[in-house]
Amino acid sequence: MNALKGSCHCGNVEFTLLTQQDEHSLVPRRCGCTMCRRHAASWISDPHARLELSYRDRSLLSVYQFGHKTSHWIVCARCGVLTAVICTIDGRARAVVRSQAMIDHVFTAPEVPMDFDGESVENRLARRARTWIGSVAITPPLA
């Protein structure tokens, strides 16, 4: 099991991706939505992995929603780093982590550009259920 670590710049938000995959088999996806473009974000996920995300100070955590409001964007309000996106599907949290927030991990596969414009909410949730990180623990839980 590989424990891939990540965090925001100031350390308020930290995460560990527990996966059988490694930097050579995980493929970063570059989303073309306005939020991802403005953050120059690419994403890592593994539906068989577990994400353990924690934060130190809730008052310094920004949880943002836009568009269809199907996901929660986890941004540190102190340093401004976007770290993860969480989506609840059928009562189960799913997530992706930002590859640029990973610590000392370099992904060797080239980024794959993705375009989800025109995707229905139903199709979007079905895709996330298939491809996003399958087990998510957030400590303390977001309220």
Give a structural overview.
The protein is mainly beta. The chain has one domain (2-139): Metal Binding Protein, Guanine Nucleotide Exchange Factor, Chain A (Beta Complex). It contains two helices and eleven strands, in the order E-E-E-H-E-E-E-E-E-E-E-H-E. The protein has helices at residues 34-39, 121-131; strands at 2-7, 13-19, 29-31, 42-44, 50-55, 61-64, 72-76, 82-89, 92-98, 112-114, 135-139. The strands form two sheets. Strands 6-7-8-9-4-3-10 form a seven-stranded mixed β-sheet. It has a four-stranded mixed β-sheet with strand order 1-2-5-11, with no helix packed on it. The longest helix is centred in the last third of the chain and has 11 residues, at 121-131. It is globular and about 35 Å long.
Short description:
The protein is mainly beta.
Shape: globular
Q: For the CA atoms, what is the radius of gyration?
A: 14 Å
Count of DSSP helices? Answer: 2
Total number of β-strand segments? 11
Largest beta sheet, briefly? 7 strands, mixed
The mean pLDDT is 95
The assigned structural class equals: mainly beta
Strand content: 35-45%
Number of domains: 1
- End-to-end C-alpha gap: 30 Å
CATH fold type: Metal Binding Protein, Guanine Nucleotide Exchange Factor, Chain A
Poorly predicted runs of 5 or more residues: none
| Highest CATH level, the class | Mainly Beta
Reading the helices and strands in chain order gives: EEEHEEEEEEEHE
Report strand order across the widest sheet. 6-7-8-9-4-3-10
